[in-house]
Amino acid sequence: MNFEKLTFKDFENIPELDLNARSKIFKEYLSYMGFDDYQSYRIIGKSGCNANMTLESQHGESFISFVSNDYLGFTQHPKVKQSAIEGIEKYGTGAGASPLIGGFFDYHRLLEKKIAGFFGRPDDCSVIYTTGYTANSASLQSLLQKEDIAIVDMAVHTSVHEGCILTNKKTFLHNDTDALERILQNTTGKYRTRMVIVDGVYSQDGDVAPLKEIVALCKKYGAYIMVDDAHGVGVIGQTGRGVLEEAGLLQEVDFITGTFSKTFGAIGGYVVCNAENAAFLKFQSRQQIFSATAGPASLGIVKAIELIDEEPIWREKLQQNMEHFRQGLLDIGIDIGTTNSAIFPLKLKDPILTVAMNKAIFKKGIYANAILYPAVSKKDARIRMSLSALHTREQLDTALSSIESVFLKEKQFVY
Protein backbone atom coordinates (compact mmCIF):
# COMPACT_ATOMS: atom_id res chain seq x y z
CA MET A 1 0.00 0.00 0.00
CA ASN A 2 1.21 3.49 -0.88
CA PHE A 3 1.33 5.38 2.41
CA GLU A 4 2.41 8.74 0.99
CA LYS A 5 -1.02 10.41 0.85
CA LEU A 6 -2.77 8.51 3.64
CA THR A 7 -3.89 9.80 7.04
CA PHE A 8 -4.97 8.11 10.26
CA LYS A 9 -8.59 8.27 9.11
CA ASP A 10 -7.88 6.01 6.14
CA PHE A 11 -7.23 3.14 8.56
CA GLU A 12 -10.44 3.44 10.60
CA ASN A 13 -12.10 0.77 8.48
CA ILE A 14 -10.60 -1.15 5.57
CA PRO A 15 -13.51 -3.37 4.44
CA GLU A 16 -11.44 -6.24 3.06
CA LEU A 17 -9.20 -6.61 6.12
CA ASP A 18 -10.05 -8.20 9.47
CA LEU A 19 -8.91 -6.63 12.74
CA ASN A 20 -5.46 -8.23 12.83
CA ALA A 21 -4.76 -7.36 9.21
CA ARG A 22 -5.89 -3.76 9.77
CA SER A 23 -3.70 -3.47 12.85
CA LYS A 24 -0.72 -4.92 10.97
CA ILE A 25 -0.94 -2.50 8.07
CA PHE A 26 -1.51 0.41 10.43
CA LYS A 27 1.64 -0.57 12.33
CA GLU A 28 3.50 -0.47 9.01
CA TYR A 29 2.09 3.00 8.41
CA LEU A 30 3.33 4.15 11.83
CA SER A 31 6.78 2.84 10.98
CA TYR A 32 6.63 4.72 7.69
CA MET A 33 5.72 7.92 9.53
CA GLY A 34 8.78 7.53 11.75
CA PHE A 35 11.34 6.75 9.05
CA ASP A 36 12.96 10.20 9.19
CA ASP A 37 14.47 11.90 12.22
CA TYR A 38 11.22 13.35 13.52
CA GLN A 39 8.17 11.77 15.16
CA SER A 40 5.10 13.96 15.59
CA TYR A 41 3.08 11.92 18.07
CA ARG A 42 3.58 10.14 21.40
CA ILE A 43 6.88 11.84 22.09
CA ILE A 44 8.12 10.61 25.44
CA GLY A 45 8.25 13.24 28.14
CA LYS A 46 10.72 12.73 30.95
CA SER A 47 9.55 15.58 33.18
CA GLY A 48 6.17 16.98 34.20
CA CYS A 49 4.13 19.19 31.90
CA ASN A 50 5.63 22.64 32.27
CA ALA A 51 6.79 25.60 30.23
CA ASN A 52 10.07 23.75 29.87
CA MET A 53 10.06 19.97 29.34
CA THR A 54 12.62 17.21 29.10
CA LEU A 55 11.91 14.90 26.15
CA GLU A 56 13.37 11.71 24.78
CA SER A 57 14.60 13.07 21.47
CA GLN A 58 17.45 13.00 19.00
CA HIS A 59 17.50 16.78 19.07
CA GLY A 60 18.45 17.29 22.68
CA GLU A 61 16.45 16.97 25.86
CA SER A 62 15.35 20.46 26.86
CA PHE A 63 12.39 22.03 25.02
CA ILE A 64 10.14 25.02 25.51
CA SER A 65 6.74 23.36 25.56
CA PHE A 66 3.51 24.64 24.00
CA VAL A 67 1.60 21.34 23.99
CA SER A 68 0.03 21.44 27.45
CA ASN A 69 -3.35 22.88 28.41
CA ASP A 70 -2.14 23.45 31.97
CA TYR A 71 -3.05 27.10 31.50
CA LEU A 72 -2.32 28.40 35.00
CA GLY A 73 0.55 26.03 35.72
CA PHE A 74 -1.34 24.36 38.56
CA THR A 75 0.14 20.91 37.85
CA GLN A 76 3.32 22.38 39.34
CA HIS A 77 1.81 24.55 42.06
CA PRO A 78 3.22 23.50 45.46
CA LYS A 79 -0.14 23.92 47.22
CA VAL A 80 -1.91 21.74 44.67
CA LYS A 81 0.79 19.09 44.94
CA GLN A 82 0.66 19.18 48.73
CA SER A 83 -3.11 18.75 48.79
CA ALA A 84 -2.85 15.75 46.47
CA ILE A 85 -0.11 14.24 48.64
CA GLU A 86 -2.18 14.73 51.79
CA GLY A 87 -5.14 13.05 50.10
CA ILE A 88 -3.07 9.99 49.24
CA GLU A 89 -1.55 9.84 52.70
CA LYS A 90 -4.99 9.92 54.31
CA TYR A 91 -6.99 7.70 51.94
CA GLY A 92 -4.48 5.69 49.88
CA THR A 93 -4.11 5.73 46.11
CA GLY A 94 -7.51 4.61 44.83
CA ALA A 95 -11.25 4.68 45.49
CA GLY A 96 -11.74 0.97 44.87
CA ALA A 97 -15.32 1.00 43.54
CA SER A 98 -17.92 2.93 41.59
CA PRO A 99 -19.71 5.76 43.43
CA LEU A 100 -22.94 3.77 43.84
CA ILE A 101 -21.40 0.80 45.62
CA GLY A 102 -18.76 2.07 48.01
CA GLY A 103 -16.44 4.27 45.96
CA PHE A 104 -17.91 7.62 46.99
CA PHE A 105 -15.91 9.42 49.68
CA ASP A 106 -16.09 12.72 51.48
CA TYR A 107 -13.41 14.15 49.19
CA HIS A 108 -15.65 13.40 46.19
CA ARG A 109 -18.54 15.19 47.88
CA LEU A 110 -16.27 18.13 48.69
CA LEU A 111 -15.19 18.31 45.05
CA GLU A 112 -18.83 18.25 43.91
CA LYS A 113 -19.63 21.15 46.23
CA LYS A 114 -16.54 23.11 45.18
CA ILE A 115 -17.18 22.90 41.44
CA ALA A 116 -20.89 23.68 41.84
CA GLY A 117 -20.07 26.67 44.05
CA PHE A 118 -17.41 27.82 41.62
CA PHE A 119 -20.18 28.41 39.07
CA GLY A 120 -22.54 29.90 41.65
CA ARG A 121 -24.79 26.84 41.92
CA PRO A 122 -26.08 25.00 45.03
CA ASP A 123 -24.11 22.07 46.45
CA ASP A 124 -26.27 19.36 44.86
CA CYS A 125 -26.04 20.75 41.33
CA SER A 126 -22.97 18.94 40.03
CA VAL A 127 -21.73 15.51 38.98
CA ILE A 128 -18.04 14.58 38.77
CA TYR A 129 -16.52 12.09 36.35
CA THR A 130 -13.14 10.42 36.03
CA THR A 131 -12.40 12.29 32.79
CA GLY A 132 -13.68 15.37 31.01
CA TYR A 133 -14.31 13.17 27.98
CA THR A 134 -16.81 11.02 29.84
CA ALA A 135 -18.40 14.07 31.46
CA ASN A 136 -19.64 14.80 27.93
CA SER A 137 -20.01 11.37 26.38
CA ALA A 138 -21.54 9.48 29.33
CA SER A 139 -23.85 12.33 30.34
CA LEU A 140 -25.24 12.86 26.85
CA GLN A 141 -25.84 9.14 26.35
CA SER A 142 -28.04 9.25 29.47
CA LEU A 143 -29.82 12.51 28.75
CA LEU A 144 -30.68 12.07 25.05
CA GLN A 145 -32.38 9.03 23.51
CA LYS A 146 -34.01 8.08 20.20
CA GLU A 147 -36.97 10.43 20.81
CA ASP A 148 -34.64 13.42 21.23
CA ILE A 149 -32.20 15.43 19.13
CA ALA A 150 -28.82 17.04 19.69
CA ILE A 151 -28.12 20.20 17.68
CA VAL A 152 -24.36 20.51 17.62
CA ASP A 153 -21.78 23.01 16.39
CA MET A 154 -19.66 21.09 13.90
CA ALA A 155 -16.47 22.00 15.80
CA VAL A 156 -17.40 20.58 19.21
CA HIS A 157 -15.12 18.06 20.89
CA THR A 158 -15.18 14.41 19.81
CA SER A 159 -16.58 13.45 23.21
CA VAL A 160 -19.79 15.32 22.37
CA HIS A 161 -20.19 13.51 19.06
CA GLU A 162 -19.68 10.19 20.83
CA GLY A 163 -22.25 11.18 23.44
CA CYS A 164 -24.84 11.62 20.69
CA ILE A 165 -24.67 8.07 19.27
CA LEU A 166 -27.95 7.04 20.94
CA THR A 167 -29.92 10.05 19.75
CA ASN A 168 -30.64 12.03 16.61
CA LYS A 169 -28.10 14.68 15.67
CA LYS A 170 -27.91 17.69 13.41
CA THR A 171 -24.79 19.82 13.07
CA PHE A 172 -24.59 23.47 12.11
CA LEU A 173 -21.71 25.39 10.59
CA HIS A 174 -19.24 26.60 13.18
CA ASN A 175 -20.55 29.62 15.12
CA ASP A 176 -23.25 30.19 12.47
CA THR A 177 -26.29 31.34 14.44
CA ASP A 178 -28.40 31.69 11.28
CA ALA A 179 -27.85 28.01 10.53
CA LEU A 180 -28.66 27.16 14.14
CA GLU A 181 -31.91 29.09 13.99
CA ARG A 182 -32.98 27.29 10.80
CA ILE A 183 -32.47 23.92 12.50
CA LEU A 184 -34.40 25.09 15.56
CA GLN A 185 -37.24 26.27 13.34
CA ASN A 186 -37.32 23.05 11.33
CA THR A 187 -37.24 20.73 14.38
CA THR A 188 -39.92 22.49 16.42
CA GLY A 189 -42.53 20.01 17.62
CA LYS A 190 -40.75 17.00 16.11
CA TYR A 191 -38.71 15.78 19.08
CA ARG A 192 -39.29 15.22 22.79
CA THR A 193 -36.13 17.07 23.84
CA ARG A 194 -33.91 19.35 21.82
CA MET A 195 -30.48 20.24 23.14
CA VAL A 196 -28.04 22.68 21.57
CA ILE A 197 -24.42 21.76 22.38
CA VAL A 198 -21.48 24.12 21.89
CA ASP A 199 -18.02 24.75 23.27
CA GLY A 200 -17.19 27.97 25.07
CA VAL A 201 -13.69 28.09 23.58
CA TYR A 202 -12.98 25.78 20.65
CA SER A 203 -9.88 23.66 21.03
CA GLN A 204 -8.48 23.91 17.50
CA ASP A 205 -9.04 27.57 16.62
CA GLY A 206 -9.17 29.03 20.13
CA ASP A 207 -12.18 31.10 19.11
CA VAL A 208 -15.20 31.79 21.31
CA ALA A 209 -18.84 30.84 20.76
CA PRO A 210 -21.36 33.69 20.31
CA LEU A 211 -23.13 32.60 23.45
CA LYS A 212 -25.47 35.55 23.90
CA GLU A 213 -27.05 34.86 20.50
CA ILE A 214 -27.08 31.09 21.01
CA VAL A 215 -28.70 31.27 24.45
CA ALA A 216 -31.31 33.73 23.14
CA LEU A 217 -32.18 31.32 20.30
CA CYS A 218 -32.49 28.38 22.71
CA LYS A 219 -34.88 30.36 24.90
CA LYS A 220 -36.88 31.54 21.88
CA TYR A 221 -37.36 28.02 20.52
CA GLY A 222 -37.60 26.10 23.79
CA ALA A 223 -34.34 24.14 23.52
CA TYR A 224 -31.94 23.15 26.28
CA ILE A 225 -28.33 24.27 26.00
CA MET A 226 -25.08 22.62 27.09
CA VAL A 227 -21.78 24.53 27.04
CA ASP A 228 -18.43 22.75 27.35
CA ASP A 229 -16.03 25.47 28.49
CA ALA A 230 -13.01 23.27 29.13
CA HIS A 231 -10.63 25.77 27.50
CA GLY A 232 -12.27 28.94 28.83
CA VAL A 233 -12.47 28.32 32.57
CA GLY A 234 -9.53 29.87 34.39
CA VAL A 235 -8.53 31.83 31.30
CA ILE A 236 -11.50 34.06 30.43
CA GLY A 237 -13.86 36.09 32.60
CA GLN A 238 -13.30 38.66 35.31
CA THR A 239 -12.85 35.95 37.96
CA GLY A 240 -11.87 33.08 35.65
CA ARG A 241 -15.32 31.51 35.36
CA GLY A 242 -14.90 31.33 31.62
CA VAL A 243 -16.81 32.46 28.57
CA LEU A 244 -20.15 32.26 30.34
CA GLU A 245 -19.01 34.73 32.97
CA GLU A 246 -17.69 37.09 30.32
CA ALA A 247 -21.06 36.95 28.54
CA GLY A 248 -23.04 37.34 31.79
CA LEU A 249 -24.71 33.95 31.31
CA LEU A 250 -23.47 31.79 34.19
CA GLN A 251 -27.01 31.18 35.44
CA GLU A 252 -28.66 31.06 32.01
CA VAL A 253 -27.52 27.70 30.62
CA ASP A 254 -28.88 24.27 31.49
CA PHE A 255 -25.62 22.31 31.52
CA ILE A 256 -22.03 23.46 32.01
CA THR A 257 -19.44 20.76 31.34
CA GLY A 258 -15.69 20.81 31.61
CA THR A 259 -12.54 19.07 32.68
CA PHE A 260 -10.16 19.12 35.62
CA SER A 261 -7.25 18.31 33.28
CA LYS A 262 -6.60 21.84 32.03
CA THR A 263 -6.87 24.87 34.30
CA PHE A 264 -7.26 22.69 37.41
CA GLY A 265 -4.09 20.70 36.73
CA ALA A 266 -5.29 17.14 37.33
CA ILE A 267 -7.64 14.62 35.67
CA GLY A 268 -11.41 14.32 35.75
CA GLY A 269 -14.53 16.08 34.54
CA TYR A 270 -17.74 17.66 35.72
CA VAL A 271 -21.30 18.52 34.79
CA VAL A 272 -23.01 21.45 36.51
CA CYS A 273 -26.79 21.58 36.08
CA ASN A 274 -29.94 21.69 38.20
CA ALA A 275 -30.32 19.34 41.16
CA GLU A 276 -32.84 17.07 39.43
CA ASN A 277 -30.65 16.48 36.38
CA ALA A 278 -27.61 15.95 38.60
CA ALA A 279 -29.44 13.28 40.61
CA PHE A 280 -30.60 11.61 37.39
CA LEU A 281 -27.04 11.41 36.05
CA LYS A 282 -25.67 10.02 39.31
CA PHE A 283 -28.01 7.02 39.05
CA GLN A 284 -28.43 6.64 35.28
CA SER A 285 -25.10 7.51 33.66
CA ARG A 286 -23.25 4.27 32.97
CA GLN A 287 -19.91 5.79 33.86
CA GLN A 288 -21.32 6.63 37.29
CA ILE A 289 -22.65 3.09 37.75
CA PHE A 290 -19.89 0.92 36.34
CA SER A 291 -16.62 2.87 36.61
CA ALA A 292 -14.52 3.41 39.71
CA THR A 293 -14.29 6.97 40.96
CA ALA A 294 -11.19 9.16 40.96
CA GLY A 295 -8.56 8.64 43.62
CA PRO A 296 -7.74 10.76 46.69
CA ALA A 297 -5.24 12.88 44.74
CA SER A 298 -8.44 14.66 43.62
CA LEU A 299 -8.00 16.83 46.70
CA GLY A 300 -5.43 18.66 44.59
CA ILE A 301 -8.33 19.76 42.36
CA VAL A 302 -10.14 21.19 45.36
CA LYS A 303 -7.09 23.35 46.10
CA ALA A 304 -6.79 24.38 42.45
CA ILE A 305 -10.41 25.58 42.43
CA GLU A 306 -9.69 27.68 45.53
CA LEU A 307 -6.52 29.13 43.97
CA ILE A 308 -8.47 30.65 41.08
CA ASP A 309 -9.74 33.22 43.58
CA GLU A 310 -6.91 33.16 46.12
CA GLU A 311 -4.11 33.80 43.62
CA PRO A 312 -5.42 35.76 40.60
CA ILE A 313 -1.82 36.55 39.69
CA TRP A 314 -1.70 33.38 37.58
CA ARG A 315 -4.58 34.52 35.38
CA GLU A 316 -2.93 37.92 35.09
CA LYS A 317 0.38 36.37 34.02
CA LEU A 318 -1.40 34.21 31.45
CA GLN A 319 -3.23 37.22 30.01
CA GLN A 320 0.06 39.11 29.69
CA ASN A 321 1.62 36.14 27.91
CA MET A 322 -1.36 35.85 25.56
CA GLU A 323 -1.16 39.52 24.57
CA HIS A 324 2.60 39.39 23.99
CA PHE A 325 2.51 36.17 21.98
CA ARG A 326 -0.47 37.27 19.86
CA GLN A 327 1.23 40.50 18.88
CA GLY A 328 4.48 38.67 18.15
CA LEU A 329 2.80 36.22 15.79
CA LEU A 330 0.90 39.01 14.04
CA ASP A 331 4.12 40.98 13.59
CA ILE A 332 5.69 37.95 11.90
CA GLY A 333 2.70 37.69 9.57
CA ILE A 334 1.30 34.40 10.83
CA ASP A 335 -2.42 33.77 10.33
CA ILE A 336 -3.82 32.97 13.80
CA GLY A 337 -7.47 33.20 12.82
CA THR A 338 -9.91 34.57 15.38
CA THR A 339 -8.41 33.09 18.52
CA ASN A 340 -9.38 34.86 21.73
CA SER A 341 -7.89 32.43 24.21
CA ALA A 342 -4.63 30.79 25.27
CA ILE A 343 -4.76 28.58 22.16
CA PHE A 344 -2.85 29.88 19.15
CA PRO A 345 -3.29 28.15 15.77
CA LEU A 346 -0.52 28.90 13.28
CA LYS A 347 -2.66 28.41 10.17
CA LEU A 348 -0.28 27.28 7.45
CA LYS A 349 -3.07 25.54 5.51
CA ASP A 350 -0.81 23.05 3.75
CA PRO A 351 -0.25 19.74 5.63
CA ILE A 352 3.20 19.08 4.16
CA LEU A 353 4.38 22.58 5.02
CA THR A 354 2.84 22.29 8.48
CA VAL A 355 4.77 19.12 9.27
CA ALA A 356 7.97 20.59 7.81
CA MET A 357 7.71 23.74 9.89
CA ASN A 358 6.79 21.86 13.04
CA LYS A 359 9.81 19.65 12.50
CA ALA A 360 12.05 22.69 11.97
CA ILE A 361 10.99 24.49 15.14
CA PHE A 362 11.24 21.22 17.09
CA LYS A 363 14.88 21.00 16.07
CA LYS A 364 15.26 24.51 17.50
CA GLY A 365 13.87 23.35 20.85
CA ILE A 366 10.21 24.39 20.42
CA TYR A 367 7.71 21.64 21.22
CA ALA A 368 4.33 22.21 19.54
CA ASN A 369 1.62 20.13 17.86
CA ALA A 370 1.05 19.72 14.15
CA ILE A 371 -2.73 19.37 13.74
CA LEU A 372 -3.72 17.62 10.53
CA TYR A 373 -6.69 15.89 8.94
CA PRO A 374 -8.98 14.41 10.25
CA ALA A 375 -8.67 16.66 13.34
CA VAL A 376 -9.06 19.58 10.92
CA SER A 377 -9.76 19.69 7.19
CA LYS A 378 -6.81 19.03 4.88
CA LYS A 379 -6.81 22.69 3.80
CA ASP A 380 -6.85 23.91 7.40
CA ALA A 381 -3.66 22.28 8.73
CA ARG A 382 -1.96 24.21 11.48
CA ILE A 383 0.58 24.15 14.28
CA ARG A 384 -1.29 24.57 17.55
CA MET A 385 0.41 26.22 20.50
CA SER A 386 -1.01 26.58 24.02
CA LEU A 387 0.29 29.14 26.49
CA SER A 388 0.77 28.85 30.23
CA ALA A 389 1.17 31.34 33.03
CA LEU A 390 4.54 29.65 33.62
CA HIS A 391 6.03 30.75 30.28
CA THR A 392 8.61 33.47 30.75
CA ARG A 393 8.94 36.42 28.40
CA GLU A 394 12.34 35.05 27.36
CA GLN A 395 10.81 31.69 26.44
CA LEU A 396 8.06 33.35 24.41
CA ASP A 397 10.57 35.50 22.55
CA THR A 398 12.78 32.49 21.85
CA ALA A 399 9.78 30.68 20.37
CA LEU A 400 8.77 33.70 18.29
CA SER A 401 12.30 34.05 16.96
CA SER A 402 12.40 30.38 15.97
CA ILE A 403 8.99 30.58 14.30
CA GLU A 404 9.96 33.72 12.40
CA SER A 405 13.19 32.26 11.04
CA VAL A 406 11.42 29.14 9.80
CA PHE A 407 8.36 31.02 8.50
CA LEU A 408 10.41 33.50 6.48
CA LYS A 409 12.41 30.68 4.94
CA GLU A 410 9.25 28.88 3.82
CA LYS A 411 7.03 31.93 3.29
CA GLN A 412 6.94 31.63 -0.49
CA PHE A 413 5.14 28.28 -0.07
CA VAL A 414 2.59 29.47 2.50
CA TYR A 415 0.35 31.80 0.52
Write up this protein:
With 415 residues, this protein is an alpha/beta fold. It has two domains: 77-310, Type I PLP-dependent aspartate aminotransferase-like (Major domain) (Aspartate Aminotransferase, domain 2, 3-Layer(aba) Sandwich); 312-337 and 367-400, no CATH class. It is 40% helix and 14% strand. The protein has 14 helices and 13 strands. The chain has a seven-stranded mixed β-sheet with strand order 3-9-8-7-6-4-5, sandwiched between helices. The protein has a three-stranded mixed β-sheet with strand order 1-2-11. The protein has a three-stranded antiparallel β-sheet with strand order 10-13-12, covered by helices on one side. Helix 8 (243-246) links the parallel strand 7 (224-228) and strand 8. Helix 2 (78-91) packs antiparallel against helix 11, helix 3 (106-118) packs parallel to helix 11 (299-310) and helix 13 crosses helix 14 (393-410). The protein is globular.
Key descriptive features of the protein:
415 residues, 7-stranded mixed sheet
Sheet with the most strands: spatial strand order: 3-9-8-7-6-4-5
Q: State the helicity in percent bands.
A: 25-40%
The largest β sheet comes out as: 7 strands, mixed
Strand/helix succession: HEEHHEHEHEHEHEHEEHHHHEHEEEH
What is the tally of helical segments?
A: 14
Derived from helix and strand composition plus strand pairing, the structural class reads alpha/beta
Name the beta content range: 5-15%
Shape: globular
Number of strands: 13
Q: Could you name the CATH topology of the largest domain?
A: Aspartate Aminotransferase, domain 2
The CATH superfamily title of the largest domain: Type I PLP-dependent aspartate aminotransferase-like (Major domain)
CATH architecture title of the largest domain: 3-Layer(aba) Sandwich
Rounded to an integer in angstroms, the radius of gyration calculated over CA atoms is 22 Å
The CATH first-level class of the largest domain comes to Alpha Beta
Number of self-contained structural domains: 2
| Contiguous uncertain segments of 5+ residues | none
Head-to-tail CA distance between termini:
32 Å
